[in-house]
Amino acid sequence: MASTKLELFQKRRMRVRNKLKAVNEGKLRLSVHRSSKNISVQLIDDARGVTLASASTLEKDLGLVGKNNVEAAAKIGATIAERAKAAGVTEAYFDRGGFLFHGKIKALADAARENGLTI
């Protein structure tokens, strides 16, 4: 039976998330979503089911609306690190979802690390 691209992506996303949750119990999750036009990231406390901080290229005050490139991803990574610090968070685990860890996703993670968030 042939699987669609979306089904394969969702299987890969859940495989990554479940492995990370098993290893990083009690830590906060830094979850990334990338579309064809935007990129967004959330800092989630799975124990309470609460999003503590988020950042996206859709936020008008960041001036990145509709930009989905490596520079925009790096700016989003720096922004989420600053917002995490403001929320009192210094450590999280990086949930890349079903996306490969290169390009925009890697730039976002590196920028978050450079700005003080331990991933």
UniProtKB/TrEMBL annotation:
GO BP term (any one): translation
GO molecular function: 5S rRNA binding; structural constituent of ribosome
SUPFAM superfamilies linked to this entry: Translational machinery components (SSF53137)
Pfam families given in the database record: Ribosomal_L18p (PF00861)
Keywords recorded for this protein, A-Z: Ribonucleoprotein, Ribosomal protein, RNA-binding, rRNA-binding
GO cellular component: cytosolic large ribosomal subunit
InterPro entries per UniProt: Ribosomal_L18, Ribosomal_uL18_bac-type, Ribosomal_uL18_bac/plant/anim
Family named by the database record: Belongs to the universal ribosomal protein uL18 family.
Description of how the protein assembles with itself and partners: Part of the 50S ribosomal subunit; part of the 5S rRNA/L5/L18/L25 subcomplex. Contacts the 5S and 23S rRNAs.
Role noted for this protein: This is one of the proteins that bind and probably mediate the attachment of the 5S RNA into the large ribosomal subunit, where it forms part of the central protuberance.
Name of the molecule in the record: Large ribosomal subunit protein uL18
Organism: Rubellimicrobium mesophilum DSM 19309
Lineage, top ranks: Bacteria, Pseudomonadati, Pseudomonadota, Alphaproteobacteria, Rhodobacterales
